[in-house]
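Below is our example:

___
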Amino acid sequence: MTHSIDPVAHATQRRFGATLVILVAVAVVLVAGGLLYIRATGDTNKVALTDLLRPVTTVTAVEHPYQPRRRYVGTVEPWLQAKVGPQMVAGYVDTVLVRPGAQVKRGEVIATLDCRSSSATSRAVAAQARALDAMREASVKEATRVSSLLDGKFVSENEVDLKKADAASKEAQLAAMQAQMMSSSLQVDDCVLRAPFDGEVAERTSDPGAFVRPGSSIATVVDRHLVRITADVPEDDFANLPVGAEVRVHLLSTNRDLVAKVSRRAPSADVDTRTVHVELDLDDPGRTIPTWTTAELTLEVGTPVAATVIPLVSASVHGSKATVYTVVDGIAHATRARLIGERDGVYFVEPSLPPGTAVVTEGRGLLNDKDKVTATNVAWKPDAKVE
């Protein structure tokens, strides 16, 4: 039996299948487009930037008077210092009996030189002096004997005068030889180098075998029972450093802080640098302060004025004005105040910025005036040096 296909029904089925495929494709496209749209719009900020809360960190401004301060760099010097070495002779170093850090007493031998030549010369001069002394005594006795013959007319006055002149000549030669002997003796003494005062050996600059000349140094002795702090200050601070003025001193070598008074002040400034030399004396019986080290001198000048203290990171400075952002009721306000001074990591501004005001530290670079913020206040106080 043969079945025939209805052409009309077959065409209808084909149209229905094509329509279904199109509908499915359209549905897929719509779903995909919807997903893409959701993804694209999901990260879009629908809140205005001016309405966003900006996170910032704030600190509280502190009230503290400001007083101008001067700082100088000084040098700790020993009360006495001597470079021990020969002054009249040259020779080889024979012995050096001290090392740096050794304590010495006045007159204690520090070093010796090989001065055999000077010793021999001294002995030769002494022998010549003894010979001249003997000749002088003989001339004096002869002059006395000849003079006694003058009354009997046995000798002439001219012979007596010649004998007396010869005796005086021998006397003068002996005096010259004695002076030469003293000079030679000083040269021999110069071969034994002694400590000029009680102190400590700071340097040893020569060892046995070295050749030294007058003016050369073999060792340096310092006396530290009292040390001097010296500094050269600008001429416009002359009136701020009268004798007796108290100065705070920080010793870098020992990290000590102490107070000392000005002991001496030069009456005039250096002609080249226009600086004035000042000195402060410090008792150091324990000899704990090393010399030729650095000391920082701090001096308060002028009259304290009322001020508000803020951190350096909280302000930008233009000329004499400091601009800060303060936070009031969640709103940042750009505020300007006159800058009084800067010291130890803080700004001192006029009290037109009241103490207790919350000022922005972190996040201030992204702020504009009237921005809304969410502030986190952190504890802060000025450095101890400010106090």
Summary: The chain is about 25% helix and 35% strand. The radius of gyration is 49 Å. The helical segments are 7-42, 116-148, 157-189. The longest helix spans residues 7-42.
